[in-house]
Amino acid sequence: MALRTAGSVLVVFLWSVAVVLGQDGWSVTYTPQSICTLKGSTVELTCSYTYPRGTVTSTFWFTKNDAEGNPVSLSDDPDYKARVTYHKDNKNDCTLRITDLRESDAATYKFRFITDQTGGRFTGNPGVTLSVTDLQVQVTPYSVVSAWKTLTCATCVLTGDPTYIWYKNGQIVTDNTSPYSVYPDAADSYSCALKANEDLHSPAVCVRGESCMNVTYTHQSICALKGSTVDISCFYTHPSWHNVTEVSWFNKWESGVTKDLSQDSEYTSRVEYHRQTDKDSILRITDLRESDSTEYKFRFTTNEARWGYSFPGTTLTVTGFQVKVTGGHQDKTLTCITTCTLTDNPTYIWYKNGQHLDESTSPQYKYSASSNYEDSYSCAVKGHEDIHSPAVCECLFIKGQIEMYLGTGRDRTGLQSLKYFHMTIPLYCKIN
Fold it and tell me: Which in 88, 281, 312, 387 has the greatest CB count within 10 A?
């Protein structure tokens, strides 16, 4: 109770500072003034502002100044440019949204606005302090002699009083707040996640000793090409006194019942299990289909325990290619479109009339349109040259419209006018 009271006094004090700085009708009020949120998530920083006269000509948020001491708008900062948007619910609201949060985003954010009046610019102090945390299970013993442990999930107190999901040996055991008290077995591992953000989970940790049940996936998500082969892999551990009796991969589960993919008619002829050591497993799926897009999980059983089915696995998205054309009449840009970003930063290959044209790490290719309307273009990625996009024809880039002049005449006002009509001529080309 004392801590909560002290916190309330602190908030009131900070707000009073903002009011003092906002005298003479200038003010920026932040709500709240400190936020702790999760790495990889999205956050909104909100404020409202007032000014005595004039019209606001510019508004922006910033965290740092340039060499001349001028604030740098986040929308111009390369570290933020693609991840920030400004929103307004009404005239005097200012909301900053930051997506895909990084630990480096932890900073103090301030809002600045400029009016058309002489000297009409104002920065709201003290700003909003943002802390960004990874989820990480921290273990504290009740006492040296007690087997009971206290588990906490985050390094700062997350804003909004969230509900945590706790996993024991890969299985959900409770929805609870943090900290969480447990009486673990020596083989037990624990991990946590936020409710509604289960994909952003903490690594599993051993609560007693150094060896416990655990599965770590190499990739949280994979984007692969339709028709190709993909490897989904993981590493697993268990106490040395346990013997593994069964391993399986699955993508369907209900009430604790899972179906081994090697026994699933949709996969039987397309899946293989591989291993490089006695502590890893690789699921290989060939001839990928778009229907294979789902989450895949690994499960193993020992003579004394079993890894659960609710711990997040690897999400696979299967995509095809499609060429999109943008640009003017002459200068064109071709983009090799996929429904997800292909894993491992592939090299894109461009083909003209079925012949190799160019290679690039960018999915875009710029060129000047030719007068040969029979030309066609397609794309692929290195290592999968046998999987092409559908070819797009040069003729489809040109509007075949012809105006045909018919003659002159007189309209109802007696003025001379031109009469004409439009006719669209389809252009044909050969797809190689």
Answer: 281
* Whether domain 322-393 has CATH 1.20.1250.20: no
Triad 98, 104, 107: Cα angle to 5°:
70
Given 2.20.28, 2.60.40, 2.30.30, 3.40.50, which CATH number is that of 136-206?
2.60.40
102 Cβ contact partners less than 8 Å away, ≥ 6 residues apart: 39, 132
Burial 169-208 (b: 16+ CB within 10 A, else e): bbeebeeeebebebebbebbbbbbbbeeeeeebbebbbbb
**pLDDT tens string 4-24:** 333 322 222 223 333 334 457
Dist CA 71 CA 64 (whole Å): 6
In sequence order, what E strands does 8-102 have?
Answer: 27-30, 34-38, 43-50, 56-65, 71-73, 84-87, 93-98
pTM of this structure = 0.72
User: pLDDT (tens digit, 9 = 90+) per residue, 152-168?
Assistant: 887 777 887 788 899 99
User: What are the extents of the domains in the chain?
Assistant: 27-133, 136-206, 214-319, 322-393
Residues 6+ apart with CB under 8 A from 264: 252
Q: Mind giving me the DSSP string for 254-271?
A: ETTEE--GGG-TTTTTTE
Burial of 68 (0-12, 13-18, 19+ CB in 10 A): exposed
In CATH terms, is domain 27-133 a member of 2.60.40.10? yes
